[in-house]
Every structure is written in C-alpha cells, then in structure tokens.
Amino acid sequence: MATEERSFKTQDFTVPSNGSGETIQVRISEPNLTSENLGLETWAASHILASQLHHIGPKIQFPTPSSDVLPILELGAGTGLVGVTAATLWKQPVVLTDLAPLVPALDANIDLNSEGLRTANTHMEAGTLDWKHPTTLIVKDQQQPQTQAHVIFAADTIYSEEHPELLANVILKWLVKDKQARFIIAYPLRVCYIDYIREMWERLEEGGMEAFEEGREEASQDLFNDERLVEWSVWRWKDI
Q1: Polar residues composition bias: which ranges (predicted)?
Q2: What backbone phi and psi angles, to 5 degrees, belong to 117?
Q3: Nearest to residue 54, comparing CAs of 100, 15, 84?
C-alpha cells in the first residue's frame, strides 16, 4: 500500500516589529520529508531569536552593498523563520542555508512571504554551505562569489559533539572583519547539550570574538512542546 511521503503544515508566527507592541506575521510551511528521513520543524530557538530582531537590528550598521560580502547569512536555517523576519524588519537581503534536501522547503517559505519582502524592498535566496568545507556557497546550483557575511544567524544548530568546532570554524571564516559585523545565535538550554554550547563559546573567544549582549527567554507553551528556555547572544570581533 502506497503511503504519502510528503505532507505540509502551514503556520503563521507572530513576531514583534518594534518595542511598541506592533507585530508582523511570518508564514511558514513545514514539510514532512520522510523520503529523506528528515523532519522539518520550527523550533523554539528560532521563534525566540526572530522575536529579538526588532531591538537588535537598529544597533547594526550595514555597509554599502558589495559583491564580496553578503549582508545576512543564516546557517542551519531550517524553515527560515529567523531569516525571513530579518529580511522583512531590517530590509536587507538574506541568504538562507541548510542541507540540500531542505532547500526546496526554504524556497517555498521565501515565496510564502514574498509580499512582505516586496514591501521591505528586499529579496532572499536559499542554498547550501558545507560546514566541513565552508569555502563555497551554492545557490541554485551555482557557486556564489561571496565568501563573507556582515551578519550571521544560527538558531538551534548545536546538538552533536562535532557541531561546536564546525560552527565556530564557519563563523570565524565567514564573518567579515568589521567592527559592525555580528554573529547572532540562539539555542535551547537542553542539559545534554550544555557542554557543546560551552565549547562553542570557548572556540569563538579563542578566535578573537566576544559576546557583548545576551539574554534568556521562555518560548510559548502553546506553540512549542520541546525545551522552551532559550538563550541568545550577539557576538562581535573583539579587537577591531
């Protein structure tokens, strides 16, 4: 008996757009990619990080557009909630990256939010960036000329013993050496992964970075049933 390999759940996430209580809606579709043995879900860390962007963004100065530096790069983007929110609120181009089987789902979520992107007069793309060989960004089967980014996002991307080293290496290579460049990360405080998080912090600090803003938030119980306590932090180069 044949079984349906792909089904979709679409959900609207409410995200603050300023400190006065105004919000935007980000529409996210979550396909069940059973054929690739991948489940795609929006985790609490993504919603918490997206909800911080309205007050983080005004503190960041973006440079003049360049062919060498991406304004915003998201690693392990999942469903793309953080990147879509950033593009809409910050009015900057964003490239979302994840495993190749997840890229079509990212493209679909970009399309779902096309009206908001047009209003913000910006655009998004999705592609792949291999953390083990992070020299090449591939978008639509084409190698991209950019090898650095001004802002990098990562939400809930640390859940195996190899991730701290891989993620830190990607950040240290891709984040442009600029005093306004930022790495912004969020992760759930799962007890089993705390040591991995500590290792990531140590590797970034050894690489010349510092966390200068951080906080903790608890995600809505109505939306999430996984670990809901999330820590986020904003990083910069220390001696620039």
Answers
A1: 10-21
A2: -70, -40
A3: 15
Residue 2 has pLDDT above 70, yes or no: no
Predicted TM-score (pTM) of this structure: 0.92
pLDDT tens digits, 173-224? 999 999 999 999 999 999 999 999 999 999 999 999 999 999 998 877 777 6
Closest CA to 111 of 99, 125, 129: 125
Which alpha helices (DSSP H) does 175-227 contain, by range? Answer: 194-206
d(CA 19, CA 92): 20
At CB < 8 A and 24+ separation, what contacts does 216-222 make?
216/189, 217/48, 217/51, 217/52, 219/44, 219/47, 219/48, 220/47
d(CA 35, CA 37): 6
| DSSP element (H, E) containing 69 | strand 69-75
Which own/partner pairs from 128-136 qualify as long-range (CB within 8 Å, at least 24 positions apart)? 128/97, 128/98, 128/99, 128/100, 128/103, 129/73, 129/75, 129/97, 129/170, 131/75, 131/166, 131/167, 131/169, 131/170, 132/166, 134/169, 134/170, 134/173, 134/174, 135/173
The pLDDT tens digits of the residues spanning 71-129 come to 999 999 999 999 999 999 999 999 999 999 999 999 999 999 999 999 999 999 999 99
Pick the CATH number of 46-56+66-237 from 3.40.1160.10, 3.90.226.10, 3.40.50.150, 3.30.565.10: 3.40.50.150
Enclosing H/E stretch for 25:
strand 23-33
